[in-house]
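Entry for the shared binder. Reason: the reviewer on the internal report wants the predicted structure included alongside the sequence.
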Amino acid sequence: MTGTGLQSTFTSEFHQAFREETQSLLRRRFAQYGLIMVSVIGLFMLVDIADVITGWIQGELGEAWSDNAEGLVRRSLGVSWFGGMLACAWYGLLRREKLADLTVWTFVGYGVIVLVVTTFAMLDTAREQRVVPVSAATLLLVLAHVFACAILPWSPRQAVRPLLVLFPLTVVLSLIAPSALGVGLDMMIAPLSMLFAGPGLFVTWAKYGRRMENFRARFFQARYGQIRRELTDARRIHEGVFPQPVRDGRVRMDYRYEPMQQIGGDYLYAAAARSRDAERDALNLVLIDVTGHGVAAALTVNRLHGEVERLYAETPDAGPGDVLRALNRYVQLTLAPHSVYATALCVHVDPAREELCYASGGHPPAFVQAVDGTIDRLDSTAFVLGACSDADFDAGEQCHVFGAGDRLLAYTDGAIEARNADGRMWGIEGLERLLASEANAGLDLIMRQVEWFREGR
């Protein structure tokens, strides 16, 4: 998958999580919104009913009914409409992804009820008495719209959608029931009433932006924690392929591992081997450094780990040159097409012959420190792994005297490329000077020296 594909997947996950949270919030808020609207409309309906009952008691039922009929019809329809939509949402009669559309069309339905009932109520009134045009009914809708925008987790687009239906309807109904102001003026007032939608849209825009920012912070914090946990597990698995130190026997080995990031692209293989006299007191060692850092390099290391294990399992007597050549073939065929390369140092130590044979593919020079303090460099004998085909690769295996008390120091480039505050690298010379000044410099001392010199990672 390309970097663009990964970014697209991550963006898709973010928006999917935001939609899921919005759906959950929308269900709760729509229930609150619907219950409040039913309660408020129902309260006004009870007032209208009380007026009708009072007129009936006073013998003026006809007049009381005439004054309150339009309000009773509109409010009873409104209560029924909101109640029905709440039932659809609450009992899951509509799919969750349709809930946002349901909230929008619920408001549209209520607006249609208000405008249509108002229009038909005005048709029974003489035109000269229609001082207030139908578009004035939108003031009631504007208040309801602001309230809906304040309660419901709408996006700005969702907040605009009901207005795109209701305001054109206002224009049409102004033609059906024109006021005393005249059709022309009514047609001018109706579009101007759209300006009253500004408060609701502003509320939605402010709420949506704040909610998006809060969710983004929570999302990335949760994702960062998840990645940290996964990297911790990955590092434990990665370091699980490293060998145990060898602290007994004629050949002993110890190491320290500190990746530049939480997980790195270094790999160490060490296992007992058979010497020329058939005794199992020799040692095979392979040190690999994959280009790059982080998870990608660690995944590559795990592939190389399997290949190294296979090579020695199939050919226990394979020499350093044979192993290095096989690794180059593997990297060139499987990793180099993805611009992934590696350096490697392959070593076979045979104490019975007092001999160290090695082959190095582009790896930083190792050091052999003799018991008398002299230091010899084991420079690279071949190209970086994967840089050339198997036919052109010459491992260049070499052997060196390695007697009792001699030491081999090998490392990856993180040590010598440590930089100080001035940007100067410690370098191979820095490590060599330390070995020369400290005849028995151990790994802990070297690590402390690198740490002292280093500024940053």
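Summary line for the report: The beta strands are 266-273, 282-290, 342-350, 355-361, 366-369, 375-378, 398-401, 407-409.
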